[in-house]
Design brief:
MetI-like fold; two-stranded antiparallel ribbon
């Protein structure tokens, strides 16, 4: 059987030449987008200023300076404390909620899924701003509810709880996916042996789900450790330096400290890599393939006390999503924070200011939307070609392509942005006319690199469902490789292409790390404008900008879903077939 891109007729060309050309092209693009920036990050950790300063030197001893420099040490310690605490709290909370969702049926159970996805797609810095505006000494809680929660929230333990409430969806979704299929034979055998339900849960169900539980907890740890948005929003109310924020400060504030950015980026990558390796070692030490032919989709029985679980679900939704979102909505319609929720304090002036002529927020939204559209198009195309190489070819470098995609999935956006600064600010590239630092095009490249792993995985499932025989039949008919991709493969996986495009577009508009680090000084972007206005105390204007932008993202997502349904060929919603 021939592969997708092999020639099947004469012409004197070597077999597999088209697929090798495509494979090498994809590998070269991944090297530029991911490999070289990460290489420059590692090199700057031991040779700060390489290519950027005349007096640079190789200094491997800088890696040991973290034990003697208070800021470096505090950043590492705070990041590990926050990530570890959120991993424990968020991992336990997400796992418990997943078990509740798939163990008993009660009214409002699907709300758990909706809240988890809403938190997952919401920008962390917007959620953090909502919590700060709610819990600050002069915030919404004090002026509206008469309660001051600031001592509880603005403390290491409070930050761990808030971060866990924001990040628990990673654990919830990972465990929920594993609980989709149910094999009751193990629980029935334990029950026949006299085990109580709690014993069955503790000794049978949880151990069998170790990979999912561990994956969820590690995902929470990794995401918190590399998150830049949450510490950036909290820095205005509570001094708590973390690795991502200190990396940002080292490069964006004067004087520039290349050694600080390089060393802290190095340690951030090392810690995240160690976490992923520990997870792989944990799940590969034993076998967990416990499903048998008797497994069936989970069908939980009705709960004995449905009111209790429905109430807890409503309370969770109000606490995790309702508090930050409700706070942002209230502030966006309020003249002042201290005015509270009163009719005379309500206004539309913040929204009117956004849509007024010359609005920086509207300009930032337009720029961010254009960057996100370009990055989404480039990412969708590159992800499609990457998936083609991984699925339909025998290119020998497929392993390297897969590794590059996996590595970029674990690398925080702030580290990737620092690598882009170190790489594209090189004088050698500037002399060749390739110095992209300070140009909006660099935002497109960074957005493509950051979103590529997700886009690839969204498309791989659809590509794997395409029978090679269809492509081989087109090849036997004389269709060239590009024609086969365009006329056979693209129509078959069009819904997956639309989904990946929409996902990249929605996340790219609020990409705070890349835009903060790489946007030119005079180039307004939405996340930077929201954060800058928030830091200046313009809370109503900042939250109004976030609300308008979120509404636009939801509208674009709904439109892409409608397009996807049409491409699937199904009937429009609300009509029966």
């Amino acid at each position: 059987m021939t592969s997708l891109l092999e020639r099947t007729r004469g012409g004197g060309r070597r077999r597999g030449a088209p697929e090798n050309a495509l494979g090498w092209a994809v590998l070269a693009l991944l090297a530029v987008l991911v490999g070289l920036p990460l290489l420059f990050v590692v090199v700057q950790g031991v040779a700060p200023g390489l290519g950027l300063e005349r007096d640079w030197s190789v200094r491997p001893d800088l890696l040991g300076e973290i034990v003697r420099r208070p800021l470096w040490q505090a950043s590492l310690a705070n990041s590990l404390t926050l990530a570890s605490g959120a991993m424990l709290f968020g991992g336990v909370l997400g796992t418990a909620l997943a078990f509740l969702r798939h163990t008993v049926a009660f009214p409002g159970a699907r709300l758990l899924d909706g809240v988890a996805w809403a938190l997952l797609v919401s920008p962390s810095f917007v959620l953090a701003q909502g919590w700060v505006l709610f819990a600050s000494p002069s915030g919404v809680a004090v002026n509206t509810l008469g309660v001051d929660p600031s001592p509880l929230v603005f403390s290491p333990a409070g930050l761990v709880v808030i971060t866990g409430l924001v990040k628990y969806p990673f654990a919830y979704l990972a465990v929920s996916a594993a609980l989709h299929w149910d094999d009751r034979s193990y629980r029935q055998a334990a029950a026949l042996s006299g085990a109580r339900p709690w014993t069955v849960l503790r000794t049978v169900r949880v151990p069998l789900l170790t990979p999912a539980v561990a994956a969820g907890a590690i995902l929470v740890f990794v995401d918190v450790l590399g998150d830049f948005g949450l510490p950036a929003a909290l820095s205005a109310a509570y001094p708590y330096p973390t690795l991502p924020y200190s990396i940002y400060a080292s490069v964006r504030q004067s004087p520039v400290s290349f050694e600080l950015g390089g060393v802290l980026s190095f340690y951030l990558v090392v810690v995240i890599s160690a976490a992923v390796l520990l997870y792989l070692r944990a799940v590969r030490g034993s076998r967990y393939d416990f499903l048998t032919g008797s497994a069936a989709p989970a069908s939980p029985p009705p709960a004995r006390i449905p009111v209790l679980w429905s109430g807890l679900t409503a309370l969770l939704a109000a606490l995790t999503f309702g508090v930050p979102l409700g706070t942002s909505l209230q502030v966006s319609f309020s003249r002042t924070l201290h005015g509270g929720l009163t009719p005379e304090n309500m206004t539309l002036e913040h929204y009117a200011e956004i849509f007024a002529g010359g609005s920086r927020m509207l300009e930032g939204l337009a720029n961010s939307l254009s960057i996100a559209l370009a990055a989404a198009a480039a990412t969708t195309l590159l992800a499609f070609l990457t998936g083609v190489v991984l699925t339909f070819t025998r290119f020998r470098g497929r392993f390297l392509i897969d590794v590059a995609g996996t590595v970029s999935l674990a690398v925080p956006g702030i580290v990737l942005a620092v690598g882009y600064i170190f790489l594209w600010n090189q004088p050698v590239l500037a002399d060749l006319g390739l110095g992209l630092y300070g140009h909006p095009a660099l935002l497109v490249l960074a957005g493509t690199a950051g979103a590529l792993p997700i886009a690839v995985r969204l498309q791989l499932g659809a590509l794997a469902q395409v029978p090679p025989g269809l492509l081989n039949a087109a090849a036997l008919s004389g269709a060239r490789p590009a024609t086969r991709l365009r006329t056979v493969l693209v129509p078959l996986v069009a819904p997956a292409l639309v989904s990946s495009f929409a996902a990249v577009l929605a996340s790219g508009i609020f990409d705070l790390a890349a835009t903060t680090m790489l946007a030119p000084p005079s180039f307004a972007t939405l996340p930077v404008e929201i954060l800058a206005e928030y830091d200046r105390g313009g809370y109503g204007y900042a939250t109004a900008g976030a609300v308008v932008s979120a509404a636009l993202v939801l509208l674009l997502t709904a439109a892409s879903s409608a397009i996807g349904r049409r491409l699937l060929g199904g009937p429009p919603s609300g009509r029966r077939t």
